[in-house]
Each structure stands twice: as C-alpha cells, then as structure tokens.
TrEMBL record:
Active-site feature positions: 135 (proton donor/acceptor), 163 (schiff-base intermediate with substrate)
Gene3D superfamilies (alphabetical): Aldolase class I
Catalysis: reaction(s): L-aspartate 4-semialdehyde + pyruvate = (2S,4S)-4-hydroxy-2,3,4,5-tetrahydrodipicolinate + H2O + H(+)
UniProt protein name: 4-hydroxy-tetrahydrodipicolinate synthase
Similarity section: Belongs to the DapA family.
Assigned keywords, A-Z: Amino-acid biosynthesis, Cytoplasm, Diaminopimelate biosynthesis, Lyase, Lysine biosynthesis, Schiff base
Pfam family for this entry, one: DHDPS
GO terms of biological process kind: diaminopimelate biosynthetic process; lysine biosynthetic process via diaminopimelate
This enzyme's EC code(s): 4.3.3.7
Signal peptide from the UniProt entry: none
Gene source species: Faecalicoccus pleomorphus
Length: 295
C-alpha cells in the first residue's frame, strides 16, 4: 500500500467570504492525479492546510474524498492535532468513514520529550485498527521524531511506517534501519530527494509537486523501479524547477495557483492569513507551466 507516488492533495477553497471548500474542484483534482498515475491520495496534510480547517470540515472533506476516489487508489488521512484527545477523535471518525490509513503528524507548538511523543503515537495507533504512518516534519512542528521514538512504537501492530520530511539523510538512514528490523515502510516527504531515498530503501514518496506534475513524478518512480537510472535522474532534476518556484510564496500558494492557471482545478486561494500570488509571481508560474507543457 505504501509505495510509489502518493499525492498530498490541496484542499480547494472558493473565493467567498468564508473561503468554503470547493468539492467540485476537489473531485477534478483527484481525477487528474489518479488518471496520471499516482498510487494514493493523502488528505489534510501540510499541503492540504489542515491547521486552518475546522474539525467538522475535516470530517465532511474526508467523506467526500472517500466517495470521489471510490476505491481507485488508497486514501490516507491526516488526523493530526496539538492534543492527543482530538487526534484520537479524528482518527476514529476517519476510520469509520472508510479511509485506508492514517498519517499522524507530531503535535506542534508544545515542545515534547521523546517519551511523550512516543506515547502520543502509541495512544493514537492503539485507538484504531487501520494502518498508521508517523509523519516527521520538525521544521514545522518543532518536534522531531527521533530514531528512539520510531523504534519505541515500531512493534505496535498497526504502525506501518513513517513519512520523513526532515530533509536529513542521516535521519532517513536511521528510519530505514528501524523499518528493516520491523518490516515497516519509509516514505520520502521531500520532493528533491525521492530518487536518492528510493535507492537507499524507501518504498515511495508523499510528494506535494505531484498535485501539478503527477505524470512526470509517476514516470520517475517507474524508471527507478525499472533501474533506468539515467531517466530517473533526469526526471528528478526536472522536479527542481517547480520546487524552486514553489519556494517563492507561503505554502501552498504556488501549487494552488498553478492548478488554476494550468486549468487543472479551481483550487482557489490558501486560507487566510496566507495571501494570494502577486501578478509577478503569476507570470513565473505561467512560465513554469509552459516548461511542463501544461499550458
């Protein structure tokens, strides 16, 4: 289940006063990435703007996505919250709705000890029956999932692995060591090192850029699996263009605007307080889309 390219989809919003969720655009985006070869849909992650989406919206969005995907690929959902109690409540509701697995981010804002962090993941995993993937992105949460934490929960039956967005190769090596010992999966969360991570032993990637260029990224993974190293490296290099442009605004502004300007889906704005693109950045995004032959 945890392999190849998994898309952490945007949460599309209308440009109305409340920036309500656009479900028509959500379905269009889901169809686009599935038709272009991705192997899974991950909702309510960092690119999905989970911190600014209400509890009730998360439940409704999960229901709609499970309906739209309709078993074509697995659906992974992010129940992450600052409190263990809220994370458990969301995880249990998402399981009832029918998601295939959960990706649980570290709590944020409060600096936790390793044992506190391990206990959080243990309690969440033991509250559900479906697979749980830990999600490490310390630059955003302030809490790094160390090798000690990962190993401490690795033997829990439904802990299936970890997504690493630390961009730290030594950290990735530690995860792969634990994963091999317990037969778990490691997923890359940094789009610039997918090929490197796969060659080290990672099984796949949760790749934000695949919202816009899913076929290129799926083709890259196929090349890796077929040991076509030259092609894989060429396609990995191609990902760098969109990554460079993506860094020119607050996440996920550039990717959402690229979806709109490319006619892929009306992803709308990021939710406030994040601002929309400047006209100058719009032009850079158009040039990037031309490069990928999306306009």
């Amino acid at each position: 289940m945890f392999s190849r390219i998994i898309t952490p989809i945007m949460t599309p919003f209308y440009r109305d006063d409340k920036q309500t969720i656009n479900y028509e655009a959500t379905k269009k985006l889901i169809d686009y990435v599935i038709e272009n070869g991705v192997s899974g849909i991950f909702i309510l992650g960092s690119n999905g703007e989970f911190p600014v989406i209400t509890y009730d919206e998360k439940i409704e969005f999960t229901k709609k996505v499970v309906e739209f995907v309709n078993h074509r690929v697995p659906v992974y959902a992010g129940p992450g919250a600052c409190s263990t109690q809220e994370t458990i409540c969301l995880a249990q509701e998402m399981e009832k709705i029918g998601v295939d697995a959960l990706s649980v981010i570290s709590p944020y804002f409060v600096k936790l000890t390793e044992d506190e962090l391990a206990n959080h993941f243990k309690m969440v995993a033991e509250s559900v029956n479906i697979p749980v993937i830990l999600y490490n992105i310390p630059r955003m949460t302030g809490n790094s999932i160390t090798k000690y934490v990962f190993e401490k929960v690795a033997s829990i039956p439904n802990v299936a692995g970890i997504k690493d967005s630390s961009r730290d190769i030594d950290n990735l090596k530690d995860y792969l060591e634990v994963a091999k010992k317990y037969n778990l999966s490691v997923l890359i969360g940094s789009d610039g090192i997918i090929a490197q991570g796969y060659r080290m032993g990672a099984s796949g990637a949760i790749a934000g850029m695949s919202n816009v260029i899913p076929k290129l990224m799926s083709d890259m993974f196929t090349a890796l699996e077929n040991h076509d190293e030259e092609k894989a490296d060429q396609l990995q290099e191609e990902v760098n263009y969109i990554r460079t442009v993506n860094k020119k605004a607050t996440m996920p502004v550039v990717l959402k605007r690229a979806l709109e300007l490319g006619g892929i889906a009306e992803a709308g704005p990021a939710r406030l307080p994040v601002s929309e693109c400047s006209p100058e950045l719009d032009e850079e995004i158009r040039e990037m889309l031309k490069h990928y032959k999306l306009i």
